[in-house]
Amino acid sequence: MSTFLAAAVLAVACGGNADPENKPGGEEKPVEPVKTEITAPVVSDIQPKSVTVSSTTTMSADKITKKGFVYSEKENPTISAYNVACTGSDFKASLSGLKAGTTYYVRAYIMAGSTSYSEQTKFETAASSDLDDYIAPKYADDYRSISDWSHRAEWNLANVHDPTVMLADDGYYYMYQTDASFGNAHEGHGHLHGRRSKNLIDWEYLGATLNSTPSWVLAKCNEYRTALGLPAVTQPQNAFWAPTARKVTVGGKTVYRMYYSVIMDNYIGNGKPVSTAFDGTWTERAYIGMMETADPASNKWEDKGFVICSSSDLGKNWKRSSPTDWDGYFKFNAIDPSYIVTPEGEHWLIYGSWHSGIAAVQLNPETGKTLAELPNPWGTADEIAPYGKQIETRGGRWQGSEGPEVVYHDGYYYLFIAYDELSVAYNTRVVRSKNVDGPYVDINGSSAIDLVQAYPIETHPYRFSKGSGWVGISHCAVFDDGNDNWFFASQGRFPDNAGGAAPNAVMLGQIRRIIWTETGWPIVLPERYGAVPQNEIRKEDIVGTWEHIDLSYKYAEQRTSVTMSFTADGKISGGPWSGATWTFDAAKNTVTTSNGVTLYLSRECDWEATPRTQTIVYGAHGKDKTYWGKKI
Q1: Distance (Å, rounded) from C-alpha 103 to C-alpha 404?
Q2: Residues 68, 83 contacting (CB under 8 angstroms)
């Protein structure tokens, strides 16, 4: 209570102040009741620490010596409680210094020789934290000084690449990833490293989920090579990429499944590592395996073995003219799995990368393996059909799409896809379908098969006016918290000109909120998630200067911000929309501009500010572009 007593109480609307002679706990003189009507206070503009109250009276103003409001956490407060005096003509005041999420009672009073009170009004302050008390995340974006293995307990979201995120029954979000790390810090310490968090900001490093390459990988590879009349691989060069983890129910019990990629960096022709002389053939097929646990907190997973591998409709024609010949032997490349259980209970694996796009294959829910028996992974297109149905491609045998992630939301399956090379140019697109195995279309209704540019753009290399910005932002995980709050996780990299040693090798895990538009498409917000309280956004909060980014596609180029202002009279000045007008819809948290763009607003962390603080951001979709912005 002592903190509360110290809070300033102001009567801004009627020019009065807290009565210095009537503090809580003081003595109230006996008074005779005055027979006059005072209406019970009307409470409005309820905030976490303040409200506005108003009343009316029938008494003539020249008879009133004092009027105001008394309030307390106890019923029927009197002058001995907290009070606000009004000295102007309006019978209205602001009660401030309140406690968030707390029930109060307020009465209006009048002094005219004696004191009269109105009936009391009960109200509760908003539960949200005051934005003034917001504390932004403290961890550094530039983690290079703690990137090595000895600092792993300090990593938080450092050394994250191709993340997958799932929410477990213990309330933790678990994240797993590709082995890639700055300076190869993971090398020699196992594979598919994990971490966990309760708040999506502070992450505890857990360690590797696989200590070594499972024996089935080389055995399966040499089984196929024997059938093809090829020599056995004796020096396998493996790497572990892009897992996906999900909580599922199997046989009435909860189980956690992780599908993972294992590549074989050996030539098909002679089986030797690619570090040896080029032998004129493509490199070996990749494999997807699966493991399970009943307790992700233990970080102990049981490997369940082979699920699927790369397949080719070119028979045994695995010749390659040079190491830079990207025409591609395989049709479906067995990396980058995404796993989904449909509302009808079907289990599907969505996978693929670079070779002829993305495939969908149905799984057996009990085993987690393919529902159909797999034939040899070479032959005609019909012969390898059990390896999956093509659901997306940018066209051609070799094309830059990978990292699929499929989620179900409000009647649609959304397929997020990573475009282009991963060090700088990485960007994210999304298409959707009523069926998990397609047909998928983009926001313009174009088929996702042989679509060179699908829209909308979800992420793209970018830079606000401060800081170096981010590139390589894709290969995402998309997940929700069970209450329809959705998130997008990926890595981000510094651009080459960011300074210091190997800036583009920085791989920082990044999480952003997703807002779903009225037409059902996701917008990934420009600033990373920082647990900013989602206090009501008011029209006056929008007025001011903003940084605006036109996120139109440009290969490997950071899209940079320009400034423009939203004025109180509903106009936009400066920047590309200068001369346009704007209107605000408080119920939808949107701004609509006269040039036909709807901006979706959210309170987020300003990571570029010094010190970091909270701000308001927007995201919007156009026909072939996306807009990002933040208030400064």
Answers
A1: 48
A2: yes
Distance CA 162, CA 158 (A): 12
- For residues 157 and 404, give the distance between their C-alpha atoms in angstroms, rounded to a whole number: 22
CA distance 296 to 306: 21
Task: Assess contact for 366 and 434: CB atoms under 8 A.
Answer: no
Give per-residue pLDDT as tens, 31-83: 444 446 899 999 999 988 889 999 999 998 888 989 999 999 999 999 888 88
Sheet containing strand 253-264, strands side by side: 238-250, 253-264, 287-293, 302-309
What does R_g of the chain's alpha carbons equal in angstroms?
A: 31
CA distance 381 to 318: 15
Structure tokens at 275: 């570090």
- CB 495, CB 424: distance < 8 Å: yes
Range of lowest pLDDT (49-58, 267-276, 300-309, 449-458): 49-58
The residue-averaged pLDDT of 577-600 equals 97
Q: What three-state secondary structure class fits 418?
A: strand
pTM exceeding the 0.85 threshold for the entire prediction: no
Token digits for 7? 């809070």
The 3-state DSSP class for residue 146 equals helix
